């Protein structure tokens, strides 16, 4: 596992979204009680209704914290009250800002795994995914079902000690791309091919190579976590921050 890449700087006060930049924020989902109540105040009624559907208290608390932090981050970037934001959702659940009207040009995506969440924001479509690197009994079944034959071969050729992280690198890149284009394509992930290198181009197998290109970046937000960011442009500046709340 990498150990030197996961220290992201604290998000600076007054940060605003700029064209050509992507801001990625990492934030914990397990927080002290005072912080929990601070975040809970931002949620809308529909979010509280979703929270109530979680049977486990830990899952319910993490959902509330995750949504509160999303509202905090977007509110800070837009200079609006986090509680005033409203969201709409695509056919496959991808969220977007519905109000205020001034926020329509801002795109965002979020992901969580265990006790950690990541939020990505830009002036164009994007997708982000996150996984905690861990042993999985069904890993080989996932590879056979969702990886392309070339991805499977590349994974098998790696030294045993590198395969687990490479598996999650590949998986998060596929998921980030699927989330970026806003489609429910889990049953077609084997047709989406990415390399296991640090920076990669997404390829649709069987699709002409002159089709629109997407690019994926590796993310290392914390020790034992890997993530991926999918973008429609190669030269975007990616800023990675730790989020601990409004100043």
- In angstroms, what separates the terminal alpha carbons? 33 Å
Give the fraction of residues assigned to helices: 25-40%
- What are the secondary-structure elements, in order, as H or E? EEHHHEEEEEHHHEEEEE
> Tell me about the biggest sheet?
5 strands, mixed
CATH architecture of the largest domain: Alpha-Beta Complex
Could you name the CATH class of the largest domain? Alpha Beta
Radius of gyration: 18 Å
Helix segment count? 6
Number of individual domains: 2
Helix/sheet category: alpha+beta
Mean pLDDT: 88
CATH superfamily of the largest domain: 4'-phosphopantetheinyl transferase domain
Number of strands: 12
Can you offer a commentary on this structure?
The protein is globular and about 50 Å long. The protein is built from six helices and twelve strands. It folds into two domains: 118 residues, Ribosomal Protein L22, Chain A (Alpha-Beta Complex), CATH 3.90.470.20; 88 residues, Ribosomal Protein L22, Chain A (Alpha-Beta Complex). The strands form three sheets. It has a five-stranded mixed sheet, covered by helices on one side. The two termini are 33 Å apart. The longest helix is centred in the N-terminal third of the chain and has 22 residues. Helix 1 packs across helix 3 and helix 2 runs antiparallel to helix 3. The protein is of the alpha+beta class. Strand 8 and strand 9 form a beta hairpin.
């Amino acid at each position: 596992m990498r150990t030197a890449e996961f220290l992201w700087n604290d998000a600076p006060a007054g940060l605003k979204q700029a064209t050509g930049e992507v801001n990625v924020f990492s934030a914990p989902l397990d927080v002290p009680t005072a912080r929990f109540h601070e975040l809970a105040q931002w949620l809308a009624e529909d979010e509280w209704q979703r929270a109530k559907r979680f049977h486990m208290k830990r899952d319910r608390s993490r959902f509330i914290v995750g949504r509160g932090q999303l509202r905090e981050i977007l509110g800070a970037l837009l200079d609006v009250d986090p509680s005033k934001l409203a969201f709409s959702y695509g056919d496959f659940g991808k969220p977007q800002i519905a109000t205020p009207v001034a926020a329509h040009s801002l795109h965002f995506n979020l992901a969580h795994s265990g006790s950690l969440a990541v939020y990505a924001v830009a002036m164009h479509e994007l997708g982000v995914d996150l996984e905690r690197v861990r042993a999985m009994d069904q890993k080989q079944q996932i590879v056979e079902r969702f990886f392309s034959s070339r991805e499977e071969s590349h994974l098998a050729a790696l030294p045993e000690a590198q395969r687990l992280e490479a598996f999650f690198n590949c998986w998060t890149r596929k998921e980030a791309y699927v989330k970026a284009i806003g489609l429910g394509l889990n049953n077609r992930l084997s047709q989406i091919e990415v390399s296991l290198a640090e920076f990669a181009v997404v390829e649709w197998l069987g699709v002409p190579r002159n089709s629109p290109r997407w690019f994926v970046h590796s993310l290392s937000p914390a020790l034992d976590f890997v993530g991926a960011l999918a973008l429609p442009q190669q030269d975007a500046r990616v800023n990675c921050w730790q989020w601990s709340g409004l100043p």
